[in-house]
Model the fold of this input.
Amino acid sequence: MKNYKALILLVIVSFLSTSCFEDSDDNQISASSINDFVWKGMNIFYLYKDNIPDLANDKFTTDEVYADYLNSFSNPEDLFESLIYQRETIDRFSWIVDDYIALQQQFQGTSIVNGMEFSLFFAPNSTTQVIGVVRLVLPNTSADTNGLERGDIFYGIDGNALNENNYSQFLSQKSYTLNMGVFDDNGTPETTDDTIVPNGETINLTKAVYTENPVYQTEIFNIGGENVGYLVYNGFIGGSENELNTVFSNFKSNNVQHLVLDLRYNPGGSVSTETYLASMITGQFKGQLFTKLIYNSNFESTNYNFTDQIEKGNTINSLGLSKLYVLTTKGSASASEGLINGLTPYITVIQIGTNTTGKTQASRTLYDSPNFEREGANPNHTYAMQPLVADAMNKNDMKVPNTGLTPSIGFEYEEKPLNYGVLGDVNEPLLALALADIENSTAKIAVIKSKTKQLSLKLIVDSNELNPNKGGMVIK
Done:
């Protein structure tokens, strides 16, 4: 990373010495300072710079032409969006914000939430009615205090039935009341008469500032005389590696021989933290390449190697495993995918669940300062950008496909919103599949995959998707 930062400084100095155009009277042409920051930052760092003609180094012949270009955009967001490469298919993940203070807090795990994470679906046998199913309740939040539980169903907010046009408005409120319901199959095996029935219960939720601990849950099970560690990890938040190390110390002292890593709701985060976790899982590959980041033509690649030390911290507690079970859903993204991809050349990774998001790129925060770092940022505004700046690849030069990582053969299983199960319970379907394989019980695997009623609800959106700035694969 030191080499990368040195290259950044060199590129910036080179850019600034060649890209300031003067008119014939040696008068500097005025342009929007924020738009200027957006273009220069994207020109230097954007991963797909070479695919965007407007980011070419020789695009503008004079300052006047450059200023006219910047002033043709009424706001920084429009300029930024015009520089994105194939938004719908290639770059789905770059963004710009007008409040980098809130962004920094979010990267550190602090945001304004009520503690309910959920998925929205069309109700059974409906193409208009929307229901929400709670998938996670954050501890010590409004949702937790008011008794909300994983698997709870809500069909309305503040007495209004949810539909595709109003859910965003209602859920964005600081405070609201959930109208709860229950699933009713009308006592038949058919799904055509299934419905959600109001049960008269309401739950009040209020959002507040909250710092999330991404280490959500840990368990140790004894399966067939062997100890199995289970870890629900919900975000690669920088700094959480020390708590992870404590968890692995406990796993190690309890002679954990197998590990089930639950990343089903983990949207990603720090590449460094991802590397530390990979080193805790293994330990036998110190100094070898875990992942590398490939930048645009301005920069050389950066390697992240397996290590036995946390930077400025403690010795890593490693399990030395040669096999890992990872639970995934569509909500498993970026650094979660990078962990699987980086470990695959070294150990056996059994992926259980559904395809992951399909985000192979890393991003970094750019501020309006001479070196695009937070220190020295322009005090007149709080805009910042989070563009994609690198492709992440493993030892074998393989990256995560845009379609996501596919579950291991025989371990495909989609979470059933009407039968989520309790996280950490040995009967929860995804965990149960891992434990059954550890027992070498193909019969149990077959039973788990067949016993759940196969009612399919059409997913509309997950709560993480309503907050696009959460997660990612972030470098500093």
In short: The radius of gyration is 24 Å. Residues 185 and 194 are 4 Å apart (CA to CA). Confidence is low (pLDDT under 50) at residues 9-31.
